[in-house]
C-alpha cells in the first residue's frame, strides 16, 4: 500500500499545484494536508482498479486530474 501511494508522487504533486493560482508572488490558497490526502485517496482507491494502461480506471484518473487542472484555470498545451 505504501509503495502504491509513493508511486503517485508526481501526479499528486501536479494535482496539488493546481491549487496555486494567480501570478507569481500573489497570495494563493494554502495547500492543506487534508486536501492532498483527498486527492491521494481518490487516485489510490480500489475503484480505479490499478489504473492499468487502457483501463477504465486510468481514464477516470485522467478525467479527475484534468478536472482539477480546469478548476485551477490551467489550459491544455501542445497536441
Textual characterization of the structure:
With 79 residues, the chain is mostly helical. The longest helix is centred in the last third of the chain and has 16 residues, at 56-71. It has 4 helices and no strands.
Give the structure's gist in a few sentences.
The chain has 79 residues and is mainly alpha-helical.
Using only CA atoms, what is the Rg?
14 Å
Number of strands: 0
Average pLDDT metric: 74
Poorly predicted tracts of residues: none
- Specify the biggest β-sheet: none
Shape: flat
- From the N-terminal CA to the C-terminal CA, the straight-line distance is 34 Å
What percentage of residues falls in helices of 4 or more residues? 40-55%
Which SSEs are present, and which pair or pack?
Layout: H1 2-6, H2 9-17, H3 33-43, H4 56-71
